[in-house]
Amino acid sequence: MNWKQLLSTQRLGKDKPEKPIPGRSPFQQDFDRISFSSAFRRLQDKAQVFPLAESSYVRTRLTHSMEVACVGRSLGTGAGVYICGKYKLDRIQPSDIGAIVAAASLAHDIGNPPMGHSGEETIRDWFCHSGIGKGMKKKMSEQEQADIINYEGNAQGFRVLAKLQMPDNNGGMQLTCATLAAFAKYPIEAIDIDKSAGVGTKKFNFFNDDRDLFAQVAANTGLAELAGKNYAWCRHPLVFLVEAADDISYQIVDFEDGHKLGIIPYKDIQELFMNVINKPELEKDINALSDPILKVEFMRAKAIGTLIGEVIEAFKDNHKQILAGELDKPLVELIPSFEALRKIQQRSIDDIYTYQRAVEIEAAGFELTEGLLNTFAAAINDHAGNENPSYRSQKMIQLIPEKYRDVNPDSPYLRLLNLLDFISSMTDSYAVALYKKIKGISLPSGNM
């Protein structure tokens, strides 16, 4: 792969690159388009760790995505200094590479369904084990089945960016191919998932229905093809930076949130953060702060700064392997602070992600998502090729926005994919409210 093509400004759905706007690169425009999209705005009511959190301090997917974008910009710009210096790229500045990574990072969770990862897990389980899901599965091809068996917020995210957010446009939001390729951490289709083959193939990043769109992205950026596959490519090199930005942000910041909620004692967070920072001389500055919250925020900032510097060095050290499509590990596994970061992650797994309220809400999320799927899948199936659907189905399908009401009688796959577009677009609060209404738990009130 070569950097000139990897940094393509060609927009998906356009015939040729647009004329540059002085002072505003195409990649900055990508960032702005994502920021102002309704799909991104809905992340303010989607959980990061604690669904339906009562504390305004706790981060949502929106604040998490903004933080990942900030870290991503620093990583991309730092790596961009090295890339631009080594390859003498015309019209590309380090800040342009930072803007690509920032835009891809900003969008990295844009396809996540409500109720955290339990939403993804419920969709997969429902398709394989519920009566309605299994009935639809039998009528799908192997490739179509693989999409839902392995249902992925990452693939839903590409669908949002490349099709759903601006459905009247060829290419959806028409982002640059460089940003879309950097967004795709797993540039393969579901049927080619191979968890033993390295980090880039453990999940997938585009549905069967969208694979031709991603093929255009891959062609424009010159992604290397994986041998023996039809729709599978090596990762774009900047994916490693987007992935690292997410790893750094959630591991450090989720831990900070755990302290804020009283789950992690101060002495533990100080010990584990200082293991990352590895600068004993900073303890004097920390002790000068009177408020423990300010101390934690100071250490969090220093820890993130340390990790950013280490990841940039790891990118440079492994650049040749990355460009050849041969690196099969995340960059955070190749930095000096990896062991310290691993201890933070393990403590989060043990105490934060298993925190009782988070688990209770997540468990309820399984029931909620399954209930929505059963109700609406039954309705769309009843309408598929049926001139006389039941009265109940007629009412339920009216609750689905028109743009998601594809009741194509010939394709249960497209019917279900459109329903999943609807469900994945829901915020946590909307999903709860809608579920309660269709189950009769709460009814609309007020004057008509």
Q: Beta-sheet strand percentage?
A: under 5%
Shape: globular
Give the second-level CATH assignment, the architecture: Orthogonal Bundle
For the biggest sheet, the summary is: none
Q: Nearest-angstrom radius of gyration? A: 23 Å
Number of strands: 0
CATH superfamily (homologous) name: Hypothetical protein af1432
CATH topology: Hypothetical protein af1432
Order of helices and strands: HHHHHHHHHHHHHHHHHHHHH
Distance between termini? 61 Å
Report the average pLDDT across residues: 92
Flag low-confidence runs.
Answer: none
* CATH level 1 name: Mainly Alpha
Coarse structural class? mainly alpha
Helix percentage? 55-70%
Number of domains: 1
User: What is the tally of helical segments?
Assistant: 21
